[in-house]
Structures are given as C-alpha cells and as structure tokens.
Amino acid sequence: MDAIKYEREIEYIETTLREKEKLSWEEIRNKFGNSGTEESQMKINVLKDMSVINISSVEEWVEIVDYLMSIDKNSRVVKLGEATKNNVKIPTEKYSAWKLYENSLRNKKWSLKSIASIKQTSFQILQHLSTDTSETGAVKGLVIGNVQSGKTANMAGLMAMAADNGFNYFIVLSGVIENLRQQTSTRLFNDMNSSGRGNLHWIQVDKPSLSSSNPGHQLEKFQLDVEKSKNRYFTVSLKNKSRLQSLIKWLKSDPNKAKQMKILIIDDEADQASINTKNIEEETNSAINEQLLDLVNSKVFGSVNYIAYTATPFANILNETSKESLYPKDFITLLEPSEDYMGPKEIFGIESPETHPKINIIREITNEDKIDVEELQQGENCTDLPQSFKDSIHWYLITVAGMRALNYKKPITMLVHTSFKISHHQIIAKKIEEYLIEIKNNFSKIIKDIKVLYENEIIDFKKNTFIEAMKGYSTIEEIPDYPSWEEIERYLIRLVRYDGKEYVSHILLGEEGEPKYHNGIHLTIDNSKSKADNQIVRLVYPTGKNMPTHAPAFIVVGGNTLSRGLTLEGLTSTYFLRTTNQADTLLQMARWFGYRKGYEIFPRVWLDVSANQRFEFISQINEELRREIKNYEENGLTPLEYAPKVKQSPDRKLIRITSSNKSQSAEETDFNFAGFNSQTIYFERNEIDLQNNLSQARKFMNSLKTPKINNSKMIWNNVPSEAVKEFLENYKVCNMDIKMSNLPNLLNWLEENENKLPSWNVIYSSVGEIKNQKATEEDSWNIHGYSPKASKRTQLKNRSTEEISNIGVLRVPSDLLSDIDEELTQEEKGSAKVEDIQKIREKYGYANIPQLIIYKVDKGTLSKEELATIKSKNREPLNFTHDIIGLNIMIPGETRKTQFSTYVSANIKIAENQFIDESKYLEEEE
C-alpha cells in the first residue's frame, strides 16, 4: 500500500482514532457503516471536505483499515525483560520529533510495515528506560538486528521518541573508523532535522573536550532543563580511548549540568571494541570497556541508559554478567527485518525449518581460482585474473550498462575483498585496472564472453523468481526487468569509448580540491593508508552537486573498513574470499545483505567454497538464536537467566572459531545441549563408514522391542538412554558437518543428564506402507521382519565435492511429530517451523522426551525416469556405493521447570579443512 497516497487516512486512523480516541480496529473499520448507503457516503464526504481524508468510498476505507490492522497484528516485538519503568507515550503531536521522523520515513517510501515495526520497537525499548537512575543504577539493554537491515533507522526512531519523552542528551558510539563515524553523525543529524520545523531543537556536539575553544562546547551554556528547554543534544563518538576520555571528562566537568542530563547511550555494533577482552577473573578491563563502564555506571548524571545494538550477539558481547558490566540485565529485544530485507536466510537458506536459498545470486569461486588470487596478491604469480574474477567484473559492467539504460541515477558499486593486507589491495586494484584496460582494447573479442554471461544469468535468476521468493515484497510493481542485450551492448560501447582517466581512475580532484566524478569507472581502495597525488583513493560517493550525467560507477577494493557500517550504494557485484576464522566478523563483512530497491534483480556474489559453507552455517545459527530468544520470552525468562544458556550453547561456541593455525583447532569449554536439534546433511564417500553405519543402525533397531508401525514409520517409545548412547557412539559422522561432528560432546552431556533424560523415542522413517514390505531371506536390510524402502534424496551440486555430498535437507518436518500417539489436527500435521513443533509436542506431553530419527537414504543411482523428476538445476543424484544412514537428534529445551547440567567439559573438534590460515591475509597494523 502506498503510504504517501494514503498519508492523511493513515495519520487520521493512527493519531486520532487509535491513539486519542482509543477505538478498536473493528470500531474503526465500521466507522462509516455499510458501503453503498447514503448515510455512509455523507460521513465520508464530510471528512473529505474538511481535508481530513482524501478517499471517496467506504470500500477504500475498509481496505486501508484492514491493511493497517494486519500490520499491527503482525508487528509483535520479541523482548526478554521484566516490568516497564515509566509511563512514556507514543507522541501524536504533529511537530513532535517522532511524528516528523515517521513522516520522513514515509516520504522515503519505507513500507508501512517497516514504519510500524520501528514505532513499536522504539516504544517497547523506551518503556524500559528511565529518566532517573540515581538510585537504581544505569538501565542496560541489548537490541539484536540484522546486518544492514536498518538498525540506524531504528536508532533514530528511538532517539526521536526518547527526545519527545524528556531525554535530553544522546551519545552514539559509532565503531572505530572516523569516516564511518562522520557518516553516522551526518545521517542522524539529517534524520532528526528532516523537516526543519519541529518542536525540538537538535544540536550536534562534535568531539567535545575541556581544551576545546569551540563555543558550542561551553557546557555551562547548555539548556538542559527539559521542562523549560526544547534543546536536545547529541554526540557521535568513536570507540577510541582518548576520544571517550575527553568526552567523559567534559560531561562531568559541570556537576550541576551533569545532574540535569537524561542520557541515552546507543552503542552501535556493540560487539566491536566495547566488550572486555581481558580475562574476567582479572581486576583490570580493556581500555575502551573501562571508559564505557566509567560513563555508564557513573552516579553524577541525572540518568544513564545504555543500549547495545548488534547483528552478531553470539560474539563476546555476552562475556560478563556482573552488575557492573555492560551485560543487558534489563532487556533484550529483537528487531524484525522488513519484508524487503535480503539477509542470510533469504540468500543462504536455513536447514531448519527446511528452506532452500530463496534468492539464487551466489556464484562459485573454485579452489583453483582462489589459489590463483592468493598467489597473485602475494606477488607469486604474474598471470591474469582467474575466470571467476573476470566474470564478476563482466557482470559489474553489465549492471552499470543495464542500470544506466533503466535510467538509474544513484551510484553503482562492485566490492572486492580478497585480503585484509594493504599491500594486497594495491596489487589487486592494479590487476583490475589492467583488466579494464584490456576490455577496452579488446572489446570486440571480450564482448562475446560478456554476452554469454548475460544470457546465462538472466535465465538463472529471473524477475519472477525474485518475486516468488520474496513473498510480501512491498514494491513489486517497481522491480525492474532485465534490459535487452542490445541496450546493454549500447551502453557498454559508450562506456569503453571514454579515454584515459575518464575511463578508469581514482576519484579526481577539481580546481578547489573538491571530488570530481566522471562517467567511467572509479577504482577506489578503501583502507587507512590509501593515498595518491591529486586524487582521492578511498571511497567517497558524490552528492547532488557533483553527480555526473550517468549513474556513477565504483569498484572498491578493501579489508577492515568494509566490514563495519560502511554502506556500499548500488552493490551489484561482489568478489569475496574468506579471510577470517571468526564467523561474526565474516557476517559483518557481508555487505550484500540489505535492501536493493530499484535494482533487485542485478546483485551477484562470487564466494569461495569455504566462505559459502560458513555463511550457510551462520545463517542457521542466526535464525536459531532468534528462535531461542522468542522461546525464552514465552517461558518468561529474564536476560540474566538467558546469559548462561547463550554462553554454553554448542552453537555459540562453534561460531567463535578464532584459531589462526590448525594445531589450535580445539577449545576447552562447558556445554549445554538443551534444545539441540540437528540433522546429518553431509556424507562422506567412505565405504567403511557407510557399511559401519548400516550395520550399527540395523543392529540397534533389531535390539529394541517390537516397534509400533504407523504407515511408513517404525516407532519405539521409552528406549533406554544407554542404548541410544551406545548406538550414537558407534555412528560415524562426516567431519564437515560442523554441528553433528560434535556428537562425542553431546554423549558426554547426555551421560551427565541421564537422570533427567532417562529414555528416548526412536523413529525409523522410510517410504511406503511398511506392513506391505515383509523381509525375505535375501534381504540384508531386515528390521523386525520387514525391509522398509530407503528414502530418496539428491545432492546439491554447488555444495558437494567428489569426496563429500551435501543433501541440504534430510528430515521431513512432520517426522518430528510422528511419535505422538494422539490424533493431530490438519494444521498441526502441516507444521514446518521448529518452534511450532515444540509447542505441539508440549501440548501433548512430549516436550521433555528426547527424540532420535533414523533414515536409510538410497545410494542414489537414479533411472532416467527418476532423473527427469529432479526439478532443480542445482541438484544431482548421490551415486554412492552403499545406502546412507542419516540421523536427526532433538533434545528438549530448558524451561524454568527443567534445568540441565551445563558443566560438561569437552573439546570442540573442528575439521582441519574448516580453518584457514589467517596470517596470509592479516595486516600487522591497519
């Protein structure tokens, strides 16, 4: 729905009818009575004549109300935390900071759902804050978002609403890179002053210190009495020891003013630099953490509220839980991404619930190509760029041509990340420049390769595919389609006609030192040491004043500066090698996540196999973390009760792989496997292991009592934990399966908790009616007199190798409910989400029963007829020598009533091929 078109109606409904008159949605819907009556039309006309609304019919009114009602119903905020601390209200006054900011979001064409989410989240957070913390101590909370999902917009919304409710000083902690700090500061100032006619007066206080001669830093002149003053102050500060020290000393320099301060601290990317990285048993803290504790826990201010924002909370943001630490003791809130967000789940998919990648934009960098790039940037190889790298550049040039043909006017960007080392950046940038010149000089030859790539890509990822994948996308009608090849070629020809620095260069300088942009390719290197005479080497996008005729084109090569906060506009092509073992750092570097309005079909990402696998794992863990928080919220847990569960979850431990050499591939830790739910999806072509698993599964199931048979399932209830443990001990897991390869640790944990998990339900899931599949003397697969058929699975081409197969998904969601004796409803039988399945199991008294599902998967030599049924181009037959045994293990989660042991010491065993040698890519000092 168009928020601009129906702006008056939305304002009237939300401000007058909902917030002032407190009408229910049903009352609002029926405000004008039945459609078609003279009375209802008269009521509509009266409000229209008064310029309250613009619509002319009851039908339109009902349509608007129904849409807003559905948004309100689905915009529930997930939040761990106890009672609210104040009586704040959502501002309704036309010129309040919140209403002006809300209107600015509408003018920027944010969806109504996204705006409603920001409003509800800001209000929920605000309810936990306090304008007087002199006795209670600082309020501390955590807000979990997604990478490039609009956290800054949520922060601005909270600032605006807090300002309307009496907070008068805002401190935003913005990373460790100065140009990103400036970017955040400028954006927030513009957001808070979007109309220039608000009730409040926003004042930006930049780099304040006691030694400053800036008149704007004279604290004694600040007007901080919220009853009398409309001034609101904010500072965006680097997470830098000296900057923070100067800020804190300045804030405390006038005790009377300090007492008037109602401070809201927003720590953006809170897992970066803010946390204490020293041993928590020691008395000292790391430098920046020490400064933040001094500020947050200070008693000299009227109130202090500290809110940490991050997309990667499984980092060591949760490493301390003492009262004095920055741990979010008061609340943890989830930010739900917009329906238009393209994140890990949309691009890499998740295995539970079984969701294949929705948006097929990942392209493979082969191991051979990766080695070529590594040798190239280390000066060991003087050959050309490998083919995958050339393809990524070709695609970028295609998108520049295509988007210019579509009259796209904003910057178009390509990201290249192959190393953190500055010297490597220079080498790679030079190679890119040389290849761009080669394209220009050999255009008639290379254009043929570019055309083939374009023709393949527009088949592999269609506009309709995007629309089907992104259900609920708010601006479907504005998604472009691919231009014809003739249009692409015409704009490519125009591009290569530019000469010299007008074709490819760094950002040139004008006569007065201002950035000067052209219509060719701007090749930038974004690191701390990028410099060149009379040129700007680092990435600086043009503003309206110096925008060239056509959409400006940028290729940016970089490392650390690209990993946090930097927004890459119009990102259409990415060439990315995995250069870190830290999964949270890897996630932050995925600048292709986010919103791609106006060019949805153009983005592509080239990844090496290792990076792709890691992102798939992160996607799953990210989704499970959010599901876990929702579950704990429903069970009434507080953030302090949640802390040890996060810290001791095996998933949280596995995500923090930090070793830089293979000999350090194990970490001593304490585990809690409560809530563990995982399936085997990786299988190795190892005949000995395959035969072992078949033998062990047959032996185990035949050792159990006679099963209950229900269609294609054999079900055993109350199987002793010791029997299950013995089977799992003998089962061989592929070491590529990060979660399931830690089966030994799970077994140790089960032993510690045997008194709480004395028995299991075991299910054998097959195909067809088992009772019709009696075993004969020739059948080697004989389970209690039956020979059930094997399940059929195929492997994913781009995630499998000659040695290892990845099937993507093993289990069928309904199998997780197949041990329940009671008759389920049709809706329950169709449940696919794990959280829904857990609720159903709880409803029927199965919540505390661990479950093992065994699958025998056909070795995969398919007939021609069966091959024809494989619909996905990304799938192919398994072609194993033996049938495969796959498992799904589900352990009950914890509630207030059920607590499991968390003190099981174990080693995290990670396959050596999961590690990379970080020293090849890391700069000693950047």
Q: Any overview of this molecule?
A:
The chain has 926 residues and is of the alpha/beta class. It is built from 28 helices and 30 strands. Strands 1-8-2-7-6-3-5-4 form an 8-stranded mixed β-sheet, with helices on both faces. A 7-stranded parallel β-sheet has the order 9-18-17-10-16-14-11. Strands 20-29-27-24-23-22 form a 6-stranded mixed β-sheet. A hairpin with a 5-residue loop joins strand 12 (507-509) and strand 13. Helix 9 packs parallel to helix 11 and helix 23 packs antiparallel against helix 24. Residues 280-284, 656-668 and 902-912 have low confidence and may be disordered.
Count of helices? Answer: 28
Number of strands: 30
Major beta-sheet overview: 8 strands, mixed
* Separation, N- and C-terminal Cα atoms: 47 Å
Q: Supply Rg.
A: 30 Å
Mean pLDDT: 84
Shape: globular
What structural class do you assign from the helix and strand content?
alpha/beta
Main sheet: strand order = 1-8-2-7-6-3-5-4
Low-confidence stretches: 280-284, 656-668, 902-912
DSSP strand (E) fraction? 15-25%
Helix content: 25-40%
Which helices and strands, and how do they pair?
Blueprint: H1 7-20, H2 25-29, H3 38-49, H4 58-74, E1 79-81, H5 97-107, H6 112-127, E2 139-144, H7 151-164, E3 169-174, H8 178-192, E4 201-204, E5 231-237, H9 241-252, H10 255-260, E6 262-268, H11 287-296, E7 303-310, E8 331-334, H12 344-348, E9 362-365, H13 367-377, H14 387-405, E10 412-417, H15 422-441, H16 443-460, H17 463-469, H18 485-496, E11 504-505, E12 507-509, E13 515-516, E14 521-526, E15 535-536, E16 553-558, E17 571-576, H19 583-588, E18 604-608, H20 609-634, H21 639-647, H22 650-655, E19 668-671, E20 677-679, E21 682-684, H23 687-703, E22 708-710, E23 713-720, H24 721-730, H25 743-752, E24 759-765, E25 795-796, E26 804-806, H26 826-829, H27 834-843, E27 851-857, H28 864-868, E28 875-876, E29 884-890, E30 904-907
Parallel strand pairs: 2-7, 2-8, 3-5, 3-6, 4-5, 6-7, 9-18, 10-16, 10-17, 11-14, 14-16, 17-18, 24-27
Antiparallel strand pairs: 1-8, 12-13, 12-15, 19-30, 20-29, 21-26, 22-23, 23-24, 25-28, 27-29
Helix pairs in contact: 5-7, 6-7, 7-8, 9-11, 14-16, 14-18, 16-18, 23-24, 24-25
